[in-house]
Amino acid sequence: MRLSPAGRQLAQLLGRPAGIRVRRSAEPAPGREDWVVVSVRIDSIESAVHELLALGPHMEVLTPAQLRASVHDAAATIARLHGATLGR
């Protein structure tokens, strides 16, 4: 996955996901030169989704594709839930 500087700080503060390893040889993404590519071990897709959503917009899942899709689906559900105007 890719982490912003704020994402790295947040991950350190939360102590999760555990075992983050920065990949020094990874090319930076255009417009995100200050982000780093990291790797983490996951127990399951479902548990990883919950761990990674704690980092909010400060992370981007790159692989595996199933985890990326699951994070997308969860984030879309959250966006739909918070898109409705309540009592306004």
Order of helices and strands: EHEEHEH
Give the class from helix and strand content and strand pairing.
alpha+beta
Sheet bearing the most strands, described? 4 strands, antiparallel
The helix content, as a percent range, equals 40-55%
Domain module tally: 1
Mean of pLDDT:
91
Q: Number of helical segments?
A: 3
Summarize the structure in words.
The chain has 88 residues and is α+β, with helices and mostly antiparallel strands. The chain has one domain (2-83). Helices cover 43% and strands 11% of the residues. It has three helices and four strands; from the N terminus they run E-H-E-E-H-E-H. The protein has helices at 5-14, 45-53, 65-83; strands at residues 2-3, 21-22, 36-39, 59-60. The chain has a four-stranded antiparallel β-sheet. The radius of gyration is 14 Å and the shape is globular.
Short description:
By secondary structure, the protein is an alpha+beta fold. It is built from 3 helices and 4 strands, in the order E-H-E-E-H-E-H. The protein has a 4-stranded antiparallel beta sheet with strand order 2-3-1-4.
Any chance you could write out the topology, listing elements then pairs?
Blueprint: E1 2-3, H1 5-14, E2 21-22, E3 36-39, H2 45-53, E4 59-60, H3 65-83
